[in-house]
């Protein structure tokens, strides 16, 4: 007797045909029917159109002593046509497929009139629904996308990088940005009061080994003066309040030098990277 095989690769269509073949490769029977889709394209939960409480897409609560299940947390209005399957799991872990031959839905409550038994208080259910594509916006006729790190949200809090007063007369160096990797710009604000005179100088470098001089020292040759580039000119005077922007400039490190000429002084510098 010829052996029949049911090997068949189903397509995505809802209605398809299944052919049975004998050992000689001849089709002996053809069955027309509905293909039940068991998976879907990538998406949250069970797939892009498959919703299941087993994957946390919603909550399904069987109601004790009834043939009803309350559905909550769905992003769409539930109708009877959305129900694909229900599996009841009792307290011992036994699984039983619940008949969906007679189904009504009202206010998020599924009534399974064709079910053989009422649900018990210890029962749980695995409910599978077919609904709107999770990754598709029907009104916009486009795929949805989510940017988890948008540019407008990529910035630091304000850092008070220099906060001094009444420092001894000298010139001082502070590396205000040790590494700007991951940011395209920054905003720098300076404030200083010195009755005799004061100077700010901003440096930038790509040299990872450039050292930060001690007080009274001199910036190395790989530290480049960018004061005018950022602030539009020299920062010199007895009372200085200025704010500069670093936009689309990609050195690696920034260092500020400040020089006071009076031991009575107030010195502040703030920065925000973005």
Q: Could you say which structural class the secondary elements and strand pairing correspond to?
A: mainly beta
CATH topology of the largest domain: Jelly Rolls
Based on the structure, what is the oligomeric state of the protein chains? single chain
CA-to-CA gap between the ends? 76 Å
**CATH class group of the largest domain:** Mainly Beta
List the secondary-structure elements in sequence, H or E.
Answer: EEEEEEEEEEEEEEEEHEEE
3D architecture notes:
This protein is an all-beta fold and 274 residues long. It folds into three domains: 1-35, no CATH class; 50-143, no CATH class; 152-273, Sandwich (Jelly Rolls), CATH 2.60.120. 2% of the residues lie in helices and 45% in strands. The strands form five sheets. Strands 13, 14, 15, 16, 17, 18 and 19 form a seven-stranded antiparallel sheet that branches. A four-stranded antiparallel sheet has the order 3-10-6-7, with no helix packed on it. Strands 4-5-9-8 form a four-stranded antiparallel sheet, with no helix packed on it. The relative contact order is 0.15.
């Amino acid at each position: 007797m010829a052996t029949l095989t049911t090997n068949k690769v189903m397509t995505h269509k809802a209605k398809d045909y299944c052919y049975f073949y004998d050992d000689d490769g001849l089709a002996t029977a053809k069955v027309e029917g509905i293909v039940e889709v068991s998976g879907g394209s990538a998406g949250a939960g069970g797939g892009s159109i498959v919703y299941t409480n087993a994957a946390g897409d919603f909550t399904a609560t069987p109601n004790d002593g009834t043939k009803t299940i309350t559905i909550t947390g769905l992003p769409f209005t539930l109708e009877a046509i959305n129900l694909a399957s229900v599996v009841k799991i009792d307290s011992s872990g036994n699984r039983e497929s619940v008949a969906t031959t007679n189904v009504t839905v009202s206010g998020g409550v599924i009534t399974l009139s064709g079910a053989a038994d009422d649900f018990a208080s210890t029962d749980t259910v695995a409910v599978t629904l077919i609904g709107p594509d999770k990754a598709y916006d029907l009104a916009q006729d486009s795929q949805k996308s989510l940017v988890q790190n948008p540019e407008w949200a990529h910035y630091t809090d304000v850092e008070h990088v220099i906060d001094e007063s009444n420092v001894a007369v000298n010139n001082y160096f502070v590396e205000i940005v040790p590494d700007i990797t991951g940011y395209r710009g920054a905003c720098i604000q300076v404030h200083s009061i010195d009755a005799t005179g004061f100077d700010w100088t901003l440096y930038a470098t790509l040299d990872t080994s450039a050292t930060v001089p001690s007080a009274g020292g001199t910036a190395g040759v790989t530290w480049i003066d960018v004061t005018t580039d950022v602030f539009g000119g020299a920062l010199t005077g007895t009372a200085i309040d200025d704010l500069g922007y670093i936009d689309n400039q990609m050195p690696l490190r920034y260092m500020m030098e400040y020089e006071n000429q009076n031991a009575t002084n107030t010195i502040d510098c703030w920065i925000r990277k973005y």
